[in-house]
Amino acid sequence: PEGGSEVAMKGRANRTRLAVVGIIGLVVVAWFMLVRFNVVSSWGWRQPKPDAPIVDVPKAWRTDYASWALLIVGILVAVIGLVWLLRQFSSSNRAHTYGMSHEADHGSTVLSTDALGRAVEEQIEEFPGVSSA
Hints:
By secondary structure, the chain is mainly α. Helices cover 59% and strands 10% of the residues.
């Protein structure tokens, strides 16, 4: 089971990265909401007017370039998301053996996942009304 600990490390690293990205996203959204609702002005941060834009964007960008920029960013985010999703279904992360018991006194029992799957299929197919599993 050296591969098992390697898979666990990859899963842990993946969850850690997702948690960090999520926390950063929450902090950014919270900051923009605090600025937009004029809460940060009470902390000494000033915004000229409550209805003023957070970032002053030139008119050419607002009308001509913004839609293209948003489209490109959206496509990049979608591609990154799809790559991440496809990596979650990687065949290298599948378990090839299943440890049923790991008692030091009595030894350990390891079963092939294929054998376990076939045994479960055979039991399910014995139920009335089930033609194949």
